[in-house]
Amino acid sequence: MRADLPPKAADPAGPARKAAADGACLLVAAQSGRALAAAARRAGFVPLVADLFADSDTRALCPAAIAVEGALATGFRRDGLVEALDRLAAVAPAPPIGLVLGSGFEDRPRLIERLAARYGLLGTAGPGVRAAKDPLGLAAACRQDGIPHPPIARMVPEAGDWLVKRIGGSGGVHVRPARRPGTLPRGTLPRGRYAQAFVPGRSVSLGFLSDGIDIRPVGFAEQWTAPTPARPWRFGGMAGPVRLPETVEAGMIDAARRLARRFGLRGLASLDAVLDGEDWTLVEINPRPGAALDVLDCGEVPLLAAHIAACRGYLPEMKVVSAMVRGIGIVYATKPIAAVLAAEWPAWVFDRPDSGGSIGAGDPIATVTAEAPEIGAVRALIERRSAWLRADCGAT
Would you call 198 exposed, middle or buried from its count of C-beta atoms within 10 A (0-12, 13-18, 19+)? Predict the structure, then answer.
């Protein structure tokens, strides 16, 4: 047992249950903080959110939420984020117990370290994020541990199908085919980019908890894209929990355990893979809470309470058992929306923009949710609801 960790509790879920009942304040920073805010409320915390949108339902979950200048493609402006978090901490009903980070920081480990020193981080530290998102380091770790992983390169090889990705990128908007019609990249890729061999198949993920030593699997989910000619791998949605072949589940869980220990991951994280029959290939590891919060936060122990407990050295037993599959779909504007028309939203719409606000072409309008006994029905319902939302907002 590590000397810097307290002894394990007799009831592994006990610390998580205690955390879920204390009403403590949490600072949250993410590109979109609504899912983390909702998870915090379910766990009994009071969230204060800094994100890019400050959507109406995010504001409804928080005593205060601030929209920080920045963009999905480029992230936050550092000084604006720190200023927003300082303002949130100042108006919190009680001193926040720490900061939880969502997407938008994987390529900024130094910023994570600065935020950790200022607010107290509940999650994976900057060095762990840097190591987990280093493509060369991850590839080497996978080779050493026998984890299937696509070849990567700093130059696009002459043969084969390759993708170009941004180190630490998220949401799929940074992923491009290495070769476009009539072009052939030459020389080393720009700084911060790398090439990864394309692997066909279903995109799946494993959500898990880590205390830096061991993990607890939370559940599996399936992902899909919302492609455009310029952004063919843009994130479109996710559904879960789903079951995968037993050998695949066991292999992904073992890979997550090895990598979490190697990189010192803390709290919620996820492993993304491509599945082809009973063969799977790890694509990347995400050292922070992600979109799976919306589809896997249905167990006895609230996920954010479990996240806090894991960050403090306890791993509660997680049993996500559900007869229904839950799904989310990101609805993007296909053309500019000068003024959002809808003022009243169905309960299955999340991340709701304010009535009268403008939305650029290609930007997200909102998130739709659905629930059904199997994933095909979930995706069909998400498609119908997405079409309704675009029409209702004047985006068709």
Answer: middle
Within 30-160, strands assigned E span: 46-51, 65-67, 70-71, 75-76, 99-101, 152-153
CA pair distance 350, 36, nearest whole angstrom: 12
**For residue 243, what pLDDT is reported?**
94
pLDDT digits (tens, 9 = 90+) for 210-232: 999 999 999 999 999 999 988 89
Beta strand 325-332 pairing with 279-286: unpaired
Alpha helices in 14-66 (DSSP H): 14-19, 34-42, 56-61
On the 0-12 / 13-18 / 19+ scale of CB atoms within 10 A, 176 is middle
Residue 363, token pair as written in the block:
């930007």
Q: Which 8-state DSSP code applies to residue 221?
A: E
Residue 54 one-letter amino acid: A
Residue 171, both tokens: 């949401």
The pLDDT > 70 percentage for the chain reads 91
Q: Do the Cβ atoms of 105 and 112 come closer than 8 Å? A: yes
Beta-carbon contacts of residue 229 (< 8 Å; ≥ 6 apart): none
Q: For residues 158 and 160, what is the distance between their CA atoms, to the nearest angstrom?
A: 7
Q: pTM, whole model, 2 decimals?
A: 0.90
The three-state secondary structure class of 165 is: strand
Alpha helices per DSSP H over 292-368 = 293-296, 303-311
